[in-house]
Amino acid sequence: MINKNMNKKKLEIFELKSRFIFLIFSLIIFRIGSFIPIPGINIFNLKKLFEKQKGTIIEIFNIFSGGGLSRASIFSLGIMPYISASIIIQLLSLTISYFSDLKKEGEYGKRKLNNYTSYMTLIIAIFQSIFFIISINNINFIKNLVIKSGLYFYITTIISLVSGTMFLMWLGEKITERGIGNGISTIIFAGIAAEIPKNIFNNIKYINIINMILLSIIIFFIIYFVVFIEYGQRRIFVSYAQNKKSHRFYSIKNTHLPLKINIAGVIPAIFASSIILFITTIISWLKNFIFLDFLNIFLIYLKPNKILYIFLYIFFVIFFSFFYTKLIFSSRETADNLKKSGVFIPGIRPGEKTAKYLNLIINRLTFFGAIYIIFICLIPELIKNIINIPFFFGGTSLLIVVVTIIDYLNQINTLLISNKYESILKKANINFKK
What is the value of pTM for the model shown? Predict the structure, then answer.
């Protein structure tokens, strides 16, 4: 009996270890790829360009790509085209009946939607790579940025950037399948985490001991607040009838339905940043063909510390909080499942009344979650402006890092628990399939 338990523990450790090894190996590949440059670009002159782009949306995009954009690597576009494609497909699934029907067709529909997302990613990646070439060629204040422009440079750059994005999309799917955590969030997390030491080194000279202590306290409380909210739950008490030996007697058993305070997680912050970046890309591309002054003014006010950026960010975070919550949680479906299971909320009639009650609670939680994301993502800008202390990375980056680590811990715990349940089911001679 002892030997059997030891063997089960060894299997659990082996599976967890294999997932960790695959995750680490994937991240090493990602980091190596972020240092492989596109042929034909002067990297040293490109660094001068990014020094002049501090405080703009380009800097945020560079952080998300793990510094790949500043090095003109094959992973310069990062995973953002895939995120933009996911947003478009999900919006289409709410507005076009064909896509909404695919969502209801189970595994087949999921594969078809994933294929459409891949095609859309390819189109957006091609569009952004063309914009990248146009922008590089039209920069006049940095000389010799492109070593030799021409058709060969255009073709190699587009192929390199598009291939890099498609590879990252594939790598993210494999991490989700064979690694730990969500693959796309992991790639973004790796890019942000890789830039933290560099940002600390660049800003350490501006901070004295008192400011360092103050900044450490602020960061500690922000992280504590994020962890507190992410683990927070709104418990809805429910009851269900339990049969006794005789059909004439019933007992009411009480339990609760747990709902996360921040149901949408970090997705609204990522989607909001991605959409603003997409808007900036389109405007920057248009201004090369349509010489209008208001486009330049629009780009100036789209910097992270400007009012237009803040307004758009708040709008998109609230929109995607409600949008994504509706995608992953259906009040009507939950109410129907509770009714079929003989579960009811005390004082609320099953069916339509329960759906309305759940919808009311979800809307309140989603609004609170959106305000929480906005607060965490914009507070670094307030710190910079109020107490004049440089913050190492933005609030969006901080939120992604903390939430991703929490997801890792939760999935590790889930893997260990599922292995224990699997052994219990095997003891009971019940077929268990993953």
Answer: 0.77
